[in-house]
């Protein structure tokens, strides 16, 4: 009889491995999230259609790796294809009861859908593309008080243009450095080497966004936009307009 006991954990693992992914419908979804057309298993599945903050996604797939469970970690990978989606993304990492870690994240997309997804309104109608690349991200506090424990990465807006007086003005690219502040907020910094002379540092936490910086018109700044900068107040002796959020 005892020689068959080893089959019990094997059976239980197989049972869990083949649980249909559709069981997610048994659990309540957070506000603003809706999913349907779920297929596959818990370990490898696909969501055919999902809505997050009124933004629709299609054919999002995932896979889970139980090989790290002995250390209390569950490996995972997530793919959002570009076709039919406001962004394309690939991410891999691991998670536990108390933490989450991303070892790789690549995402790209159009700016307007991203602003809708994060519920942020630009002061002027803005179009362009964005990308983000994270090499290392960890969050050891899942209480919602912090946004990161460590973070290494960068982001950029490219081919940015804004609508000024019924005319599209080309602004070009805006590279951004990402890190993690001691407070547990995501740290943002941008040098002023762009068409607006935009230079700032800031933090993003679950409850607030803080940014302090300057805008300094230069020969690459569109004339119509340079005139609008006067609404920020008087420039300093170096021609910089200061702002804060």
Automatic annotation (TrEMBL):
Q: Which domain of life is it from?
A: Bacteria
Q: Which Pfam families match?
A: T2SSN
UniProt cross-references to InterPro entries, sorted A to Z = T2SS_protein-GspN
Which Gene Ontology terms of cellular component type are present?
plasma membrane; type II protein secretion system complex
**Coiled-coil parts of chain:** none
**In terms of one coarse class, where is the protein primarily found?**
membrane
Tell me, which GO biological process terms does this entry list?
protein secretion by the type II secretion system
Q: Where in the cell is it found?
A: Cell inner membrane
Question: What are the protein's UniProt keywords?
Answer: Cell inner membrane, Cell membrane, Membrane, Protein transport, Transmembrane, Transport
Q: Would you identify the family this protein belongs to, as annotated?
A: Belongs to the GSP N family.
The protein here is known as: Type II secretion system protein N
Q: Which organism is it from?
A: Idiomarina fontislapidosi
